[in-house]
Design a protein that fits this description.
This protein is of the alpha+beta class and 556 residues long. The protein has four domains: 106 residues, no CATH class; 123 residues, no CATH class; 133 residues, no CATH class; 100 residues. The protein is built from twelve helices and 26 strands.
Length: 556
């Protein structure tokens, strides 16, 4: 039996071709996957509310460019780290200034946003920025009010208090929404508030270094000669607050470059106009009346026109005289007074001193009888004495006089009450009660009842007489007409039996004279009866009261 011969075969066996080919394909797939895979970005948020692994998308302009792969805590457990994989073609979005935020349903001053997420689910929005490439970002807790691609200017306002302003509150120019509030923070002095805002194009060109901003929130209710006047910019500013601004003419010297400027946010337009007067004079006043009702900010008026403001009201004690005094510091604004000539402008204090010599005095007046608010009224009273305290105050003093302050209002009211107290209300009440009893007895007494019964009977009799006259008036008139017709027939017959003169009865005949007299009497009777019927139709009460005088008949 022949033994098998074993020979060694040289070269690579075909069996290893398949594993080698598989390894090459796998390596190529791994390399292709690694090279074709997008960048991994890490975004930190305060909370992972609404974010789900492998479900929450990363979107830009509603187009998906990535997905969340994992969610974990930061090393100090203070925040949440979201790891998301972006597509390869979205890698250039990851720059230093890029911003991420979670889109969910939100109610703010701008309205309701993110309602689409109720159906599609929460997602993370990206806004590409500028700068060096970066993969670690701090996400925004709320969507930005203004996107980076929006044209406009960002401004900073300084306010004493925030009020009803908040993120998203509108900024108005001539009643048109021109921008929005971005946010706010405390100033370094912890006494004011810095408000960051954005003015959109083309209104950003109206913001210059001399622009003026004021709060335009809530309701402006004023009472004037035309009655109540209610004003507000819009329902949105009423609910969420608002800011309005204006820019004077370009000739006023404002420049467009506002970089680094901080604008003052005034409380309202009225306070802004008040601060437009730069020339101010301080004076001190001393009153003997009570200061109840006089507050800081009360107006100083001359003939009903505001010319200043009350700055301070204090109570001072004088050790030398062991007495109290109340200095009232006011601030006058000469620019409110239009003058012919430049003396008031050149030397306003000397001008006021000349007015004092001519009788300028200050007094307290009641501005509102309901609230008891007082104001300082400047009047010209040349005969009033020059009363000065000369207490050595730092500000010059203006003379005062007693006016219509709160004390005089109380004194007048007390005088009226004293007069009312002197009235004998018991006797007055007794007299009034007696008069009422007498009137009641007269009204309900038997005499009044009998008089009313007699009056009713008289009226019934008058009605009967009028009905009888109405029934007989027409037959009487008919009988008169028949009598007249019979008289005419008798006259015609007598003509045939009597002597005629030229075809007529002789004028001196007795029959002619009797006939004429009969005709006159019948005519007079008919006229009298007609007048009687007409008079009774107009005045039926004549049967009881008699015929009215001639003057009363003419008036009727």
């Amino acid at each position: 039996m022949n033994e098998p011969v074993v020979r060694e075969r040289g070269g690579l066996s075909l069996v290893w071709i398949i594993p080698a080919l598989t390894a090459v394909i796998g390596a190529w797939l791994i390399l292709h996957t690694l090279t074709d895979q997008g960048p991994l970005v890490t975004i930190t948020f305060r909370t992972a509310d609404g974010i789900e692994v492998d479900k929450t998308r990363i979107k830009y302009k509603s187009l998906s460019i990535g997905i969340v792969e994992s969610v974990r805590f930061s090393p100090d457990f203070s925040r949440v780290e979201v790891l998301a994989r972006l597509k390869k073609d979205a890698a250039h979005f990851l720059r230093r200034d890029s911003r991420f935020w979670v889109v969910r349903p939100t109610l703010s001053a701008r309205g309701i946003s993110g309602l689409g997420t109720l159906m599609s689910g929460t997602y993370i929005e990206i806004e590409p920025g500028q700068g060096a490439p970066q993969t670690l970002f701090v996400g925004l807790e709320s969507p930005p009010v203004v996107h980076s691609d929006t044209a406009g200017k960002q401004i900073t306002l300084l306010a004493r208090q925030l009020g009803s302003l908040d993120r998203g509150s509108p900024i108005y120019y001539q009643g048109i929404v021109a921008g929005e509030v971005l946010g706010h923070e405390m100033a370094n002095d912890f006494r004011n508030v810095l408000i960051h805002a954005f003015v959109k194009a083309p209104f950003d060109g109206l913001v210059r270094s001399n622009s003026r901003f004021w709060t335009d929130s809530g309701i402006d209710l004023t009472v004037g000669p035309d009655g109540l006047r209610l004003k507000t910019e819009s329902l949105q500013s009423l609910l969420f607050g608002g800011i309005a601004f204006d820019t004077p003419d370009l000739q006023d010297g404002g420049v467009e470059d506002i970089g680094g400027l901080i604008f003052t946010l005034h409380d309202d337009l009225k306070s802004l106009k008040d601060q437009a007067y730069t020339s101010k004079l301080r004076y001190v006043l001393y009153f003997e009346d009570s200061m109840r009702g006089l507050t800081v900010g009360a107006p100083v008026e001359f003939k009903g026109i505001k010319v200043g403001t009350v700055l301070d009201v204090k109570l001072e004690y004088d050790d030398a005289k062991s007495a109290f005094r109340i200095p009232v510091v006011i601030e006058l604004e000469p620019e409110r007074i239009a003058t012919r000539g430049d003396r008031m402008k050149r030397a306003p204090r000397e001008s006021f001193q000349n007015l004092v010599k001519k009788g300028l005095r200050a007094r307290l007046q009641a501005g509102n009888l309901l609230t008891g608010q007082l104001f300082v009224d400047l009047v010209m009273q040349p005969k009033a004495p020059l009363r000065l305290v000369n207490a050595g105050h730092a500000d010059p003093e203006l003379p005062t006089m007693r006016g219509g302050g709160f004390d005089q209002m109380i004194a007048s009211a007390s005088g009226i009450l004293e007069q009312l107290e002197k009235v004998d209300y018991a006797a007055l009440g007794a007299d009034l009660q007696g008069a009422l009893k007498g009137a009641n007895a007269m009204t309900n007494g038997p005499q009044m009842q009998a008089a009313l019964s007699d009056l009713a009977a008289s009226l019934a009799s008058v009605r009967g007489i009028l009905r009888a006259l109405d029934a007989r008036a027409e037959p009487i008139a008919t009988n008169l007409e028949q009598a007249l017709a019979a008289a005419r027939d008798a006259l015609d017959k007598s003509k045939k039996t009597m002597a005629l003169v030229d075809g007529a009865i002789a004028p001196d005949a007795p029959l002619h004279q009797h006939s004429l007299r009969l005709m006159q009497e019948l005519g007079s009777t008919a006229r009298s009866l007609r007048h009687l019927v007409d008079m009774l139709e107009r005045n039926p009460q004549a049967l009881l009261l008699g015929k009215a005088p001639a003057k009363e008949q003419e008036q009727k």
